[in-house]
Design brief:
The structure holds two protein chains of two kinds.
Chain A lengths: L1 H12 L29 H12 L5 H5 L4 H13 L1
Helix pairs in contact in A: 1-4
Chain B lengths: L5 E10 L2 E2 L1 H10 L4 E3 L1 H5 L6 E3 L4 H8 L2 H4 L4 H16 L16 E6 L5 H13 L10 H5 L3 H10 L5 E2 L7 H14 L5 E8 L3 H9 L30 E9 H6 L6 E10 L13 H15 L8 E3 L7 H13 L8 E3 L2 H4 L6 H15 L1 E2 L24 E2 L5 E8 L3 E9 L3
Parallel strand pairs in B: 5-6, 5-7, 10-11, 10-14
Antiparallel strand pairs in B: 1-2, 1-8, 1-9, 3-4, 7-8, 9-15, 12-13, 14-15
Helix pairs in contact in B: 5-8, 9-15, 12-13
Chain lengths: 82, 426
């Protein structure tokens, strides 16, 4: 389940990544801002895409805690379980 | 370091009848129109259902811009970026990658727009706001709807560090940008400036003009015949879109780096008619028009008779005959002694904020290649313009010794701009 969710998260992140090479070695520990060098202004859009793709609602506080790909995956899995 | 001489070292254009210098110059020479019928205008019950929209931009934009950049760019910004990047490359300059972390403090941009990001507002922002869904807007709205979106994005693409701004003076926007950039370099405040204008192609941009009945509604079945500046059957302008950008540079810098120089900007002038003396929000004050032309000519230090061609504002409204007369009176030249007069709008429509930029590019290309393109659709010349008939080519003419072109725009708001370009011979 986590692998499947991670795959979808990577695809959501893809258009926002300036250097596509950074996605080839992506893992749960990959930092969205530091490793993928995603513009921090676009985190808002990524959260919206995640909400739409997984039919969940993410609070602003929860969104602020997401730093890595793994954080996003766990957030989604917990939301779906709830 | 004031009173720098200013030259044109690069050109970029995305016009309804061609992208890039070869295609655009070729289209002008052939009299190829970029005006087409657009079904979405008919569906929206526009009176005027034809217009000029650059073609193949969906495919073109991916050659210039990344997916990440395109997420936050509307057509106005995309058109401007394509033309600016073209002008930069045409000037022989290389793009340093963002990772190089270098800023070009000596180069800026004034790339204007008349209406700007209204499509983003109308299609994305307003519906969500009105539905109570501000939280769903995402992060990309502001940079698309702020008037300076087009110049701001270009600044990031090129690492510009001098003034970066979007001017706005309606139909005079692009020409005014060239004049303002010219003065900035002349005063030594910048070495290079990208200058011009862009405008999107959304029906929301064009709707207001259709609503005030200033567009030609009579030729929806004959799009390439619809834009009729100078003609007896002119019945309003045809809306256009796209972008035109010039690289202006100090002569000293251009020569130091061995740049190819198209032309020198001898002079420029902008003014307003104050909506008096015959002027209004939508009609020019003829006295102010004459002052503008004379101001540019005086600054250029030339005799009016040295002007080989006039690239007019000439939109196909009732104002065309008055404009031609104003040129004649301002230059003090009888009809038969006037420079050749022509209207690029006859082929591309009125591109609003982009018009002055695209038409300045056209003027410089004509100087460079030694031709003056014909004005389409004025075989039935307006009777008041008849005295000038011999000066109005209907098809392109070769003018190998074309030396000076005067370009002017006269915009809503009663605002005027005029630039004098001279072919550069080293």
């Amino acid at each position: 389940m986590e692998q499947e969710v991670m795959g979808k998260v990577v695809e959501i992140l893809r258009p926002f990544v300036k250097n596509a090479d950074a996605l080839t070695a992506v893992s749960m520990e990959t930092s969205i801002l530091r490793d993928l060098k995603i513009n921090s202004a676009r985190l808002v859009d990524i959260v919206l895409e995640i909400e739409d793709a997984f039919s969940i609602e993410v609070s602003d506080e929860a969104a602020d805690q997401v730093k890595t790909v793994g954080d996003a995956v766990k957030l989604i899995v917990e939301n779906k379980a709830a | 370091m004031t009173n720098q001489r200013v030259v044109v070292t690069g050109l970029g254009v995305l016009a309804p009848n061609g992208h890039g210098l070869a295609a655009f110059a070729g289209a002008l020479k052939e009299g190829k129109s970029g005006i087409r019928f657009h079904q979405h205008l008919a569906d929206a019950k526009f009176g005027c259902q034809v217009g000029g929209i650059p073609e193949n931009v969906d495919e073109l934009q991916r050659r210039y811009l990344s997916d990440e950049e395109l997420l936050a760019m509307n057509p106005n910004m995309i058109y401007a970026a394509i033309a600016a990047l073209d002008a930069w490359a045409d000037a022989g300059l290389r793009r340093a990658p963002a990772e190089a972390d270098e800023v070009d403090w000596d180069t800026g941009a004034i790339i204007g727009t008349g209406i700007g990001g209204i499509d983003t507002i109308a299609e994305k922002l307003a519906p969500k706001v009105d539905a109570g869904k501000v939280g769903r807007l995402g992060s990309t709205m502001v940079e698309q709807i702020m008037s300076s979106g087009n110049s701001a994005r270009i600044a990031g693409l090129l690492g510009l560090g001098n003034q970066v701004s979007t001017n706005s003076s309606a139909c005079n926007t692009g020409t005014e940008a060239v004049v303002d950039a010219f003065f900035r370099i002349r005063e030594g405040r910048a070495v290079r400036m990208l200058a011009g204008g862009s405008e999107g192609s959304s029906k929301y941009i064009w709707a207001g003009f259709d609503g005030m009945k200033v567009l030609n509604r009579t030729r929806n079945d004959a799009p390439t015949e619809a834009s009729r500046p100078l003609s007896a059957s002119a019945a309003g302008f045809i809306p256009g879109s796209g972008a035109g950008v010039l690289m202006l540079e100090s002569l000293a810098s251009a020569q130091a780096r061995g740049a190819r120089i198209y032309a020198e900007v001898l002079g420029g002038y902008v003014n307003c008619g104050g909506h008096r003396m015959g002027g209004s929000m939508t009609a020019p004050n003829p006295s102010s028009v004459r002052r503008c032309i004379q101001g540019a000519v005086a600054m250029a230090g030339i005799e009016p008779k040295e002007i080989g061609a006039i690239n007019g504002h000439l939109t196909a409204t009732f104002a065309d005959p008055k404009e031609v007369r104003s040129w004649s009176e301002a230059l003090g030249l009888a009809p038969e002694r006037m420079p050749l007069i022509h209207s690029t709008k006859s082929l591309i429509g009125h591109a609003l904020g982009a018009a002055g930029g695209i038409e300045c590019v056209a003027s410089v290309l004509e100087l460079h290649h030694g031709f003056v393109h014909g004005s389409a659709n004025c075989d039935d010349l307006h009777p008041e313009i008849a005295p000038f008939a011999s000066r109005i080519p209907h098809r392109s003419v070769e003018v190998p010794d074309l030396d000076i072109v005067a370009k002017a725009s006269f915009g809503f708001g009663d605002v005027n701009g005029c630039v004098i370009f001279k072919k550069f011979r080293s």
